[in-house]
Amino acid sequence: MLEPSSSEEEDDDIGSSFNSGFNGGSSHLEPPGGVHQNGGPPRVPSPMSVDGSMAKIGGGRGQENRGRVDGRGSPSPSLVSEKTLTEAELQEKQQKEEEERKTRIQLYVFVLRAIAYPFNAKQPNDMTKRHQKVTKEGLEKLRAKVDSFLKGETQIPCDEAFQNAVHSYNDIFLKSERVTGLVNGGGLSQHDCRDVFKHQIEKRIRTIPEIDGLSKDTVMTSWLAKYDAITKDDEQRRPGQRLPTAMLGNEVMTKEQLYDLFQQILNIKKFEHQLLYNAMQLDSMDEQAAAIRRELDARREKVAMMEKDRRLMPKFVLKDMEGLYIEEMNAAINLLKGNLESLPVQQGAAKEGKIKFGKIKPGKRRSSMLSRSQSSLSRGAPDEADDSHVAQLSKSDVVLTFQIEVVVLEVRNLKSVPPNRIIYCTMEVGNSDKLATDQVEASKPYWDTQGDFSTTHCLPVVKVKLYSENPGMLSLDDKELGKVVINPTPLSSKAPEWYKATVSKGSQDQELKIKVAVRMDKPMNMKHCGYLYAMGKTVWKKWKKRYFVLVQVSQYTFAICSYKEKKSDPSEMLQLDGYTVDYIEPAGAMFYHMNLEGGKFFFNTVREGDSVLFATEDEQDSHNWVMAFYRATGQAHKPAPPVTTAKTTSLNKNQGDADRARKHGMEEYIAADPIDFDHHKLFSKLQCLSLDWRLGDPFASLGWFTPGQVYVLDEFCARYGVRGCYRHLCYLSDLLDKCEKHTVIDPTLIHFSYAYCASHVHGNSVPANPLGEQFATPDKCIEESTRPDGVGTVTQEEKEKFQEIKERLRVQLEYQLTNFRFCFPFGRPEGALKSTLSLLERVLMKDISTPVPQNEVRSVIKKSLENAALVNYERLSEEARIEADLANPQEDMVGEVIIPPARKLEDLIRLADLCVDLLRQNEEFYAEAFAWFSDLLVEHSEIFWSLFAVDMDSVLSEQPPDTWDSFPLFQILNDYLRADDNLKNGKFHQHLREIFAPQVVRYVDLMESSIAQSIHKGFEKEKWEIKGNGCATSEDLFWKLDALQSFIRDLHWPDPEFGNHLNQRLKMMACDMIESCIQRTYNCFEMQLKKGILLNPTDYVLPSEICAMVNVVLDAKNQSLKLCAVDGVDVGNQKPEANSKPKKHKYHTKIDDMIEKTSANMRIQLVGKLVSVLDKTLSKLGAYDEGSMMGSFLSFANKKINVTGTGTDLGKSYVSFVRINMDTVTKRIADDLWVLNVMEKWYIDQVELLSKWLTERLDKSLHPYQCTCLAHIVKKIYTEYELQGLEEDRLQCGQYQAIEQRMATEEATCALTNAEATENGEDSDDEKRKKSVQKSKMKKEESREDGAKVQRQSSKAPPPPVREESSDTEVDSEDEKPKKQKAKAKPKPKEKEKQPPPSSQTGKDESDFDSIEDGGKIPMAAAGAVKDALATGGVDKVADIGKESVAQAGKMLTKGIGGFAGKAFGSFF
After folding, report:
1. Structure pTM?
2. Alpha helices per DSSP H over 958-1055
């Protein structure tokens, strides 16, 4: 038995479950289109993917940060139980876990800031939809659903074709171990399963013939709908049910969803998130914008420090890159400034006066002595030496627009007007138009009228006046009853309040009040407002209380302005660029001025050479102003309120949140300065955890991030300065880790990141087609530029890591190509193998611009495919061995188990089937990917078959001689190889021919000998019983010949020359065998016909043995067309083309001629045997010939005692003989055409024999016995042969017409002496029916024709034919017969008297003898007259003679011949 060796490759268990500590949720990654400026992944996803498996999570890029953490942040489970750890080890473990937790929280703080205020990235909304993946449980459910359908347990209607398609899909795809491995790697989606099923049914439907009214597209749609019904998910989501975050892999996420997503990724508790959210004031856009400005200041200062101390810079591949690095850092900061500046600070379009910032120039740096607490981004003119001077704002830049809503609700204490007087109110703001309320009665002073106003006054004046309608006819104005003046601010209460109205002196309405609600909206660019005491050196030089507004002009420009009532422009303003704010003690405030009345809580703003002191009367108000200034100045130092010994005041919400955060240890994470962290390592950890979470979500992501993940990662990189190349290198490292663990990763994703890194490291321009010259670019994601991120510096770490990843990637790609059937089962993920080949070509390139030589690419692919052939064959052999063990289980036996050769051959055939299926799948699913290397794939197949040939030769050599069980193996292999144009007549195909050619020749030799022996023995023992289309021996012969030719034909021998030789030999063999069969059959046929006929010839029945022999010859004719013709076609019967000789196989021509000759001889001899019965019957009738002694004796004896019976009996017996043998021939001989020819010849020979017999007796009259017999025979054989299908012109031949006329005459002559023959004659059912109908008609006319009948009977001329009357006598009753006989006999004596014969002139009375003698002379005369009439006048003259004979025969009625003769006479007419 064949025992294929098992594979020893690393991927023995491609479907093994991967080990990953991550158990997080799910999402979907697909970077948005284009390459991000900070090196984000390309954002146009590709449907292609690569095999891989989930790797453990790396904490960072360095070994010191590669802590294994799952998606929730918990450490990976240790293989050693905690009980076995020492106290020191436990403490160390807990310490690592605590450090990991702190790192994740700190990382989450930075992520929160990126989510809360993004200003660089956008969520992509054009990403390819990712489908839900099939999990292990899902695969089991899918298999169970399909099995349930195949068992008929579902209610889904289907036909047999669809059920066969589902059965094939289940066996080939769903139950495949390679699919299980793909599911374990997370690379199979439900959409992929449906695509594979669609692909399979497309092939099946293409083979189905067209059906009228049913298109193949309709069948395809119907089958897919049934498949969807089979695989439908049972658990449907309820309408309105909120999707979990893991199910949002394809959607754009809100901020809340992003927060929840990264809580799951970083394993942050909800409580921790809430503390951080409140303490960081993530809902305050001003706070977040200020934090960004502080971060940019810190980055700028760090760049300045690097410029002074080059040791702070990373190591570059070239020393000259250090200066370029400084420029790149400054450019990145300026880009972030521009992005932040581009964000709107108020609703609507940006103001024209928005300030533009100057870019930092490399040659001009701020002094490092400048403290960060006093620094701000420079906006001054570059020509000035002092960077602190900035562009001054004008008053028009800080003009604000306010929306004011005024609602008048009610009036109280109105006494001066009657209750029925009409009253109303008016509203106005500043100098705007007045608005009025509805008019109501004084008894019901209620309104709900709102007035909307717009003003530029920061301190507007709202006036509400109450009027009563003047009843006077000539009055022009209504009477004012009172008014209310309100001074609202954005901080005023928006609830309705009662305002006391101002009334005229002496009015009764001194207590008049109006309820008014005033709402003044805060503009987006106004950050804070309120009353402050202020005094400065250059502005607000006098200490007094003023109304201040903090205005944001742009993202980097703020101004503090003081306004007066009813003024749009500020009275004074201070631009806060370069200022810092902090609290100040009252004692410190005295340095500004000794007399600071009104202020209790002080703070100041300071800049080089200038300061402004502010004070409030409320502590909380002071805190609010300080924080607003802190956000506006962008300073790094956060002011802390002074510690007071006074009674604790109530803290605001933000202070309370900060205290709670400090209590739970969150303050240190919030207060941490981002500049102090290595964001590259933090991002590496974040990206690794995000990838782990993504690969664990419900979608087949293949490594592509979700839109939300891409969005946050892009923002993180841009905000915290993560280099794009480093980002992609970390991404590649993570992806390769997953691939090495057999997680399925899209090779296109790897290609994008690798191309990005290669172009960065090499510094070359990216080619137009990054996927290689031989491959079409699937996605135009890599733009052609010097470097994808515009960064010209390359660090030493990036270069080293790139080389490491390049080598890892090359090894991984070679591994995937070697195991392409297991890494990409059934071509899934779609297009992944083609993308892998493209990536391999890119990896082999020395740099980004120089294409790799094709020979190098081909050599790598060739080596991989050679190894793939060995891997595939070993795995397939192991699979076949397992199947064989399951099919033939054996008990455990000690020692070596001897496997019989037959079992080994069965296993080899099973392995051949598997090999053919494997290569067909290669052609179906992988040939397109290897289109540019098709010759290498062919070579791979030849190597695969060469491995199989070794086992095949070994097994066949062990087979015993003259066994033919190996032919199915040849058929399986040859049928596949001859259909493959690449493998046809290849090395293995030639080897296969060389092995099996001697076996085929030997097999044909033995079969020829066996068939010849079976013919010899079979015909010796043949009983000639009809079986099939012939006899038992012929059936066996033809079956063997056909089976042999079919077998050889089904071999489809690949060598045309040897195939033609086999074909010719088989045709010759068939010709010889059939010839022998026919010769033996014909010999037996002749022997059977030689057997004599019994005493009574009409009892002869054709033996069934003769029919069987005839069938053998006829079947041989049909079989010879198939067995002896060329390719089963009778070429000799084809119409030859013009100018071409007709082609006819010589063997077929020879045997066909012999069959035709034998068939004709058998037909002649068979008919001769049957005609001999008629010959003997006529010999009997010849005994009654006139003038013979035997005839006179038999006539006398028959007349007296009826010794021999009537001639009708003999005729009936012969007709019965004809009928029986007709039925025998018709039923037992299969060839209808041959039967028809026999019938035709039999009929013609009978007619010729009858004609010859009658011709010999032209000069004699027929004896009544002869006449009645022949009359019956002549009538019936015509009818019988007509029923057999003979044509009319064949039946009505000249001889038959002469016989019919002769018999008509003879019957008329013998009517008087052969009455009994008519009595006993039987007519056919049709004739009886005809006569009965005629009788009914004649009865109606009988009374009218009585007179005419008497006249015709008494006239001299012969009466007209009375066939219709005489024929009725057959069915008349016995009582009517004598009457009719008497009526017909009355005129006879008169006729006899008128025409006496010459011999009756003696004068004596006529005696009976004389009457008989005269009656004997009449037929002789009639026969002579008929002969003369035929010679001269033809049929009409014969008819006239018949009429005369009727008149003469009437004379015999007067001499005692009874009514029976009259009936017989009438029957012939």
Report:
1. 0.68
2. 967-979, 987-1020, 1032-1051
Instruction: Choose among 545, 549, 533: nearest CA to 614.
Output: 533
**Which residues, at least 6 apart from 76, have a Cβ–Cβ distance to it below 8 Å?**
21, 56, 57, 68, 69, 70
Band the pLDDT of 594: cuts 50, 70, 90. low
Provide mean pLDDT across the span 1295-1322: 70
Across the chain, mean pLDDT equals: 76
Nearest residue to 1292 via CA among 1306, 1304, 1278? 1278
Specify the DSSP element, H or E, that contains 532: strand 526-536
CB crowding 1291-1307: b at 16 or more within 10 Å, else e: beeebbebbebbbbbbb
Contact in structure between 724 and 756 (CB atoms under 8 Å): yes
Closest among 61, 111, 21 to 696, alpha carbons compared? 21
Which residue type, as a one-letter code, is found at position 1101?
Answer: V
Q: Which residue is associated with the tokens 């109908």?
A: 1333
Of 451, 677, 399, the closest CA to residue 563 belongs to: 399
Torsions phi, psi for 849 (to 5 deg):
-105, -25
| Residue 1230 Cα distances to 493, 1026, 1027, 1083, angstroms | 116, 10, 11, 21
Phi, psi of 765 (to 5 degrees): -75, 145
160-169, 420-429, 468-477, 1449-1458: least confidently modelled range: 1449-1458
DSSP 1142-1198: PP--HHHHHHHHHHHHHHHHHHHHHHHHHHHHHHHHHHHHHTT-TT-HHHHHHHHHH
How far is Cα 778 from Cα 758, in angstroms, rounded to an integer?
19
User: What integer pLDDT is reported at residue 21 of this predicted model?
Assistant: 36
Tell me the per-residue pLDDT of 708-743, one tens digit each, with 9 for 90 and over: 999 999 999 999 999 999 999 999 999 999 999 999
User: For the residues 620-625, what does the mean pLDDT come to?
Assistant: 92
Whole-angstrom Cα distance, residue 1194 to residue 1189? 9
Q: What is the mean pLDDT of residues 1053-1061?
A: 88
Report d(CA 751, CA 53) in Å as an integer: 18
Element holding 573 (H helix, E strand):
strand 572-575
- Torsion sign across C-alpha atoms 1221, 1226, 1229, 1235: positive
Instruction: Please report which confidence band the pLDDT of residue 1464 belongs to, taking 50, 70 and 90 as the band edges.
Output: very low
Note the Cα 478 to chain centre separation in Å: 84
Query: CA–CA separation, 295 vs 336, rounded Å?
Result: 11
> Is the backbone of residue 721 left (phi > 0), alpha (psi -120 to 50) or beta?
left
Q: Are 647 and 673 in contact (CB under 8 A)?
A: no
Answer whether 925's CB lies under 8 Å from 896's CB.
no
Q: How far is Cα 1467 from Cα 1369, in angstroms, rounded to an integer?
A: 8
Angle, CA of 362, 368 and 373, to the nearest 5°: 120
Number of helices (H), then strands (E), belonging to the chain: the values are: 44, 16
For residue 1323, the model assigns a pLDDT of 52
Query: How far is it, in rounded angstroms, from Cα 403 to Cα 451?
Result: 11
Q: How far apart are CA 69 and CA 266, in angstroms?
A: 10
Helix%, strand%, coil% for the chain, nearest 5: 55, 10, 35
Phi, psi for 968 (deg, rounded to 5): -55, -35
What DSSP designation does 245 have?
G
566: helix, strand or coil = coil
Provide the token pair at 291: 């934090």
Averaging pLDDT over each range in 308-312, 467-471, 698-702, 1094-1098, which range is the top one? 698-702
Q: Are 452 and 364 in contact (CB under 8 A)?
A: no
Q: Of 216-230, 240-254, 655-669, which has the strongest mean pLDDT? A: 216-230
